[in-house]
Amino acid sequence: MEKVGLYPGCSLKGSSREYGESVVALARVLGLPLEEIKDWNCCGASSAHAVSKELSLALPARVLSLAAAQGYKELLVPCAACFSRLKTTQHTLMGDDERRKKIEDIIGAEVGGVKILSVMEWLEKYAIDAIKEKMNHPIKARVACYYGCLLVRPSGVIKGDRVEDPQSLDNLVKLAGATPIDWAFKTECCGGGMSIAATETVGKLSAAVMEDATHRGAKAIVVACPMCHSNLDMRRPYINKNMEKATDVPVLYITQLLGMACGLTAEEVSVGRHFVNYKEEEICQK
Amino acid sequence: MSEKKSISTHVKSTSGVDVSHCYQCGKCTAGCVQAERMDYPPQYIMRLLQTGSEENYEKVLRSRSIWVCLNCENCYERCPQSIDIPHVMDMLREESLKRGIAHKDASKIIAFHRSFLSQIKNTGRLWEVGMEAEYKLRTMDLMQDVKLVPSMLSKGKLSILPEVIVDKAAVKKIFDRTVGVEKEK
Hints:
The complex is a heterodimer of chains A (286) and B (185). By secondary structure, chain A is α/β, with parallel strands linked by helices. Helices cover 47% and strands 9% of the residues of chain A. Chain A is built from 14 helices and 8 strands. Chain A has helices spanning 17-30, 45-51, 53-69, 80-94, 97-107, 119-126, 128-134, 155-158, 168-175, 199-215, 226-233, 236-240, 254-261, 280-283; strands spanning 4-6, 34-36, 74-76, 115-117, 142-145, 179-180, 220-223, 251-253. A 4-stranded parallel sheet of chain A has the order 2-1-3-4, sandwiched between helices. In chain A, strands 6-5-7-8 form a 4-stranded parallel sheet, with helices on both faces. With 185 residues, chain B is mainly alpha-helical. Chain B folds into 2 domains: 2-102, Orthogonal Bundle (Fumarate Reductase Iron-sulfur Protein, Chain B, domain 2); 105-178, no CATH class. Chain B has 11 helices and no strands. In chain B, helix 3 packs antiparallel against helix 4. The interface between A and B is large, with 56 and 58 residues.
């Protein structure tokens, strides 16, 4: 199996390092070759595109160019914001030669054509059999798979899952033994990158997500986005101010849930870094 | 007429989006989680741009709406005319900053973007501790989230030192050649 490049992005090295750690731990236990690309820069996330279109294209373009130049055919981008910025850049530049040349001139290199994979696409392509084989600790709980915005929209760029009722996370948690609930807020926005600049708004939007999930009996929320995670987890006090009844339902990354189902310990997938405690006894009972 | 043409042409040439395709169905506003916090909902922003008057254009550039938009992409996804409203919002923010007429309620959001980008410019990556510090200085809201610091430290979520990439000159060059030197304040 050819090595897949990994673009962790800044969150996975900082405030969401448990996501990065659990991606690497899961790859190891499933035997999936993965290697961090060298000397990557920040993609510009939610800030660059608010300030300058050219900057928002040039920063991800350098990352795409590095991955291609370092010989990777596929690049795993677990962070939903990075994934969205890289996909948007590739989509924009592939359809506009003039702009591509301009951006390539700015970064001083060719963008190349590395294939960008979300964590779900990576697992669907390489991990299904390995998960079935290694699964020894089923997660017997009802869980709410929360996709948020950037893993599914805009569908013309992402070209992946069903956009209003995506299924990729649902199918993966089923492999881990869990029961995904049917709910209404799968792809509603949690407030995204406004956690610091508009915390109260994030509290309100994320409370709407938590309200629906908990009302329908979810014992955990499963995510694949560091912004969704930190809004639902770290901002829980702001959420609970807006809830009918305060909730302590934990938020897990898909890689943590699958890792634990495949025999990794809670420590190995870093659930201890969360603000809302994960209680194994509750998650593992139907 | 010429004013009308020049503004819609400006929007189209900078964002690549033709707002004249909007027929005011309101689906964007119906699905917008921020509409209640906006002064003009997305559909009305489209209408103001369609009128083509400089007065209405400036109204849009001075609005709160363009800054509270989260770029969640719901409006674009559901638009029957496939109008890329989030992309128009990006272009409007860029223009609003250029003209220095951003809404006063946007000051924290803009301070966040500036702090975020200056970290990247310096090190190539986002150093969250440095960004928080700069954001606090820009907003003078020194106590914000201070209570989170001890638990974030104990959970290993804060890096005391920044990660600096080897070729940070390459990233500096990207900033210089896109946003330029004078606009980086």
